[in-house]
Structure prediction request, 473 residues.
Amino acid sequence: MPGWTSLAELLSREFEQALEEGKCPDTLQTLRGEFERNASDDVALAALHAQLVALPVRADFPFNEPTELSAILPLRKNTVAAQAVVVDDALQDKLLGAWLGRCGGCALGKPVEMIGICPPAAVRQHTWRDIKRYLTAIDPQEWPIRDFIPKNSPAEGEMTGLIAPASTREHIAFMESDDDIRYTVLGQIVLAEKGANFTTDDVANVWLQRLPYRSVCTAETQAYRNLVVRYDTHESTHWSIGPRPIDWNWVATHLNPYREWIGAQIRVDSYGYAAPGNPALAADFAWRDARLSHVKNGVYGAMVCAAMIAAAFTAKDMQEIVQAGLGEIPSTSRIYAEMQDVVALCQQYDNNWDHHEAVFDGICAKLGHYSNIHTNNNLAVCIASVLLSGGDYRKGLTASVMAGFDTDCNGATVGSIMGAFTGASNIPTHWTTRFNDTLNSEIAGYHPIAITECARRSAEIVRKVQASTQVSA
Prediction:
């Protein structure tokens, strides 16, 4: 059982991943011929996959991209110091803002996550144009986005259908279950049960205990499968990681060509909530989670997002938030270099919201070659949305969805950042009241649950983390 898809498809994706990681193109071309000759031989394909993963990065590859935290730390350009926070009503308001923002961005992006002009159209790079087409066919005033996505449009016959009708404008009554919400819940559970000293093993145990296999996809599917195949034992009344030391690199790479896709990046919000004002601690937490299923840039994206969320609770402006995030990852990595280009692109337009379409085009031109659910292009959308927002909740939230790619994931991440920055009391009620303070996650104890209760639990976790790490006011 290969997991997410067929073994042949996994191998095809592995060639893409190997090239992105900097492995020798000539060697890959030779091995691709072997792949084509053995496309129906699973034994040969499995051996070929192992050979691909084991290939070294070519000597002239200009990036240094370790996955181990001890190797990441010396390569950072961290210039944002931790700030002490008090767990008071103001922080509680910001935590609620972060939760409401995550729900709001996720729900805004869910319907258009897969939208696009129907075949036989050419391969799309500018997915934002498809969203614009859908909305402006209703009314030109629908763009830039001003509300949740309508269920119907005169252009819908030209396009793939909307998904998630329960999150369309006409039907929203709660935050419906979604992976972007489930992982936020799971992160909170890990922190509530294990505190600031949780380990990757603890994250894996919570997955096996709480997260059904059918609820995961791409990198998480492959890592989940690898845990069960090699390491899991049935003990007592629940699944538990067995006694053998776990090779997390094997778990994250075996039959997992998605290891630099967006999955880890959407799992880390609760770690940012747990470390308000402390981007380095949030990035540390995110690393422990991300390494379960990801390596290199897949891990870095998770660290950046957790750090940006943590910084948003205390930062004075959007530039400080972005600087805090990028300061936690290797400055020698592909994603760091690409995000510097995105920052420069936004600066070219004075971080002015009115130029968002030009910024979207610039991101597509530079990073459109990645899968729509890759870490690098989606992190670019998150960073650009934060910078272009100028601190305005609506602008940040809507830009993250209008830009295309993985719309619900980016909306949720940017929603967390903008909500933590502004606080719930400053979010226009237009974006919050239709949830009726209700979140569904399909996770026991959180289905349904009040969003306000999730925020209250986050505040308790902050107290717990501060007590154990001696980070307090």
